Amino acid sequence: MNIRKIRSNTKDRIINVAFENFIVHGYEGTSLSAIAEEVGIRKASIYAHFSSKEALFLELLKKALEQECEYTILCFSAANDEEIPGEAYCHALKKRYVDSLSLRFLIRMTYVPPKNLIKPILLGHLTYLQGLINQIKAALVSLTLTREQVELYKDAYLGIIDSLCVELLYGENFYDRRLKAMLLLYRNTIQKHL
Predict the structure, then answer these.
(1) What's the CATH code, domain 1-50?
(2) Exposure check for the chain: N or C terminus, fewer CB within 10 A?
(3) What gap in Å lies between CA 59 and CA 111, rounded to an integer?
(4) DSSP string covering 76-94, please?
(5) 184 pLDDT exceeds 80?
(6) Mean pLDDT of the chain
(7) 4: pLDDT strictly greater than 70
């Protein structure tokens, strides 16, 4: 077997286990020893792939951002004509959160960031938001809106997403109710421009 492939498989296992550990235990509560044990390797073997816990974390952040920005584009491009701009992403968010380690990681670390990594997390979150902004603005352009209205609806949409993310992070008890209420208000406001 190719040594590069073995290293790649080990690195992928480290990444998947690290995602789960950072989501459950946070940055401070996650140890490289625990990750190594769960992967079935020695802690020293992690250093063949990552120079430190911080380097591993930053790799996960980069990977999560890439995956979630791609997913955002997919959701917006798959929207149908009967939905209001951004509705498909709102409906997909809960299932995506359940299915995607990268989204759970991104939301957890954005809302509860480790103190020593606030700057890269904030920059990453801004990248994610910019992707959402680009998608919602492109979707809103097809409506008869002024530039000011596009900005207003974009900000309202980001407020909806932010609220839904908080529900996902702190418990999904009110997620469906909040989604229904916020989309109703958003839809009623925006439908006059369809």
Answers:
(1) 1.10.10.60
(2) N
(3) 19
(4) HHT--TTSPTTHHHHHHHH
(5) yes
(6) 92
(7) no
